[in-house]
Amino acid sequence: MEGRKRIVGWGVLALWVIVLALAAPLAGRLGDVQRDRAVDYLPASADSTQVANIMEQMPGGGSTDLVLVYHRDGGLTAADRATADREVRQVAAEHPLASPPRAVPSEDGSTLLYAVSSTEPGQDEVARDAFVHDVRAAVSGEVGGPGALATDAGEVYNSLDGPLLYTTVAVVAILLIVIYRSPFLWLVPLAVAGVADFLSMAVTYALHQGFDISVSGQSTGVMTILVFGAGTDYALLLVSRYREELRRVPRPYDAMAAALRGCGPAVLASSGTVALGMLCLLAADMNSSRGMGPTAAVGVLCALIAMMTLLPALLVVLGRRVFWPLIPTYGSEPKAARRSLFAAMGSSAGRRPLAVLLAGAAALAALALGALNLPGALKQEDTFSSTPEAVAAMRTLAAAYPETGTQPVTVVAPTGRVPEALRTALATDGVAKAERGRSSDGWTEISVIAAHPPQSAAETATIEALRTALGDGVYVGGPSAEQLDMADTSARDRNIVVPLVIVVVLLVLIVLLRSLVAPLILIAAVVAVWGAALGIGGLVFEGLFGFGGTDPGLALLSFVFLVALGVDYGIFLMHRMREECLTGTEPGAAALTALRTTGGVIASAGLVLAATFAVLVNMPMVQLAELGFVIAVGVLLDTFLVRTYLVTSASVLLGRKVWWPGPLARRPVPAAGPESEREPVRV
């Protein structure tokens, strides 16, 4: 019988080999469909998205717009001007341009600006990057503009995959070695997480092909973090339970079966809740947010499948020796543990639950006030933590041309309405110049130069005035309009997705816990964590990290992740608390017992998850760094403050009412000795 059971383990491993062989061709193609163009992040229904889509359909596709910047402190010399003229003429000779570039000198004579626009690359990102690099090789000045910025952003995103994966693996490996204190055991869940990441890439590619979901560098990076973070969490819970069952059950196969029966339902429920929370992002209008929903859900579910099938099979095949040198032998007892940190925390929450609850709530509210100090909307030039050439060029232009716009606002109008649109644009306050451009399929582009610096409040007012004056059927886009649309749509998405996430997660918790009060406690706790984590971000983003602004999607994405992941841990705690109550334990005592018995392993899981998201803080994209920081801080707050003190103290205060209106709220509690005399049930 035991031999037959071992065959089952080997059979699962063989099945996974087949799955990986089938997934390999798909996973390898994910990079081919990853897109980081502006249109891949823009709101689906915004004016700027319509402009980008129409421009791509024009002859040659969307134009690649560059700005060549020649600058010398103290003023350009005659030789500088001659060099600039020669180099720009060389660019015009080697590449088809929409119009001959003209020099625009700054008032102080320190800078020359040449606007270069070409449809040669079309929609091909590789051709666009080649064009930008060719121009940079031909000129001695700085090359900026939307096309150069897109190339620099693409190179940064492409450079993320390797460092992000390696750093995440290293962080998880170190934490697992410390947690398991074994030279071998840590390799098993880490290898399984790597397999899950590989599978998630294949599934994401298949979803893109089948349903045309948006795949970006941001979404795939977050997916990798989730696979390793959430997957390692599930592994910690399973291995902890398996270790205990090996002391009670003689055969590893039977011990694993008991471990899966014990913690499997909670892991399934928590991962399902996280996946559903992520899928709520499908209701967002922002392309980047909507695309992140299914990719994040895929990451969590692939981690779940791998940790609940491949990890058990590997552990069973390897047997007890994988735990060396701390091998759990059959019939042995774990070493007598000293009074744990979580036992002490639980005791303090149990002695003065009301004081603990009020003090914790006041601390979170005070931290949340820091959100009022969040820097303003993130500008394009501030999206990099480093300074690529395109950003350096934009900063040079902003200093040299403070009195005028240096990048066009693109208007597309039906060809028959172009004369009227031109007159209206020129009559709009804040417009310095408007010129007719290409025409195709009934549409014509108009290039508008604002009289104010890019992404300034005055230029934003000009864009809004243009949209109002031009009316329906005429679209206003371009880089500054895109930033405006992202901010407006992020606010709209928050109003829709945030309530949707709360309702979906609340309904799932009600079904799982068969209570209304307990789910409301968990939801209130994770919302408070989100507010406090965002507030801490407001205190450090500008002063400590030097970030020039806040990504418009930060509030929404951090809310979805923190609510889903925070409830994930809440399920583990409440599930154990409910088990204790089903044995007749009074809910207050059950809450303290659940904290003692689950606190250690869930704290380890929280540390791993926080550390994996903290990896994003070192990435060169401000959006990712801000998101990683807020989620990491939120997970730590949830692990060591909210779940440990606030949820526990609220449960002690409410007693049986915490399970209202379920049957546990009405069940009579048998007499029991002091809480300290009861033997805690192990995880």
Count of runs of 4 or more consecutive helical residues: 20
What is the global morphology?
Answer: elongated
Give the low-confidence spans: 669-683
Helix content: 55-70%
What strand order characterises the main sheet? Answer: 2-3-1-4
Radius of gyration, rounded?
A: 29 Å
Q: What is the straight-line distance between the termini? A: 28 Å
What can be said about the biggest beta sheet? 4 strands, antiparallel
Describe the structure.
The protein is of the alpha+beta class and 683 residues long. Helix content is 64%, strand content 7%. The strands form 2 sheets. It has a 4-stranded antiparallel β-sheet with strand order 2-3-1-4, sandwiched between helices. A 4-stranded antiparallel β-sheet has the order 6-7-5-8, sandwiched between helices.
Put the structure in a nutshell:
The protein is an alpha+beta fold.
Which properties best describe this structure?
683 residues, alpha+beta, 20 helices, 8 strands, 7% strand
What are the SSEs and their pairings?
Blueprint: H1 2-27, H2 30-33, H3 47-57, E1 64-71, H4 78-94, E2 103-105, E3 111-118, H5 125-138, E4 142-144, H6 146-180, H7 187-211, H8 217-248, H9 252-279, H10 287-318, H11 341-351, H12 353-368, H13 389-400, E5 409-414, H14 418-427, E6 431-440, E7 443-450, H15 457-470, E8 475-477, H16 479-513, H17 517-540, H18 554-582, H19 587-614, H20 622-654
Antiparallel strand pairs: 1-3, 1-4, 2-3, 5-7, 5-8, 6-7
Helix pairs in contact: 1-7, 1-10, 6-8, 6-19, 7-8, 7-10, 8-9, 8-10, 8-19, 9-10, 9-16, 9-18, 11-12, 11-19, 11-20, 12-17, 12-20, 16-17, 16-18, 17-18, 17-20, 18-19, 18-20, 19-20
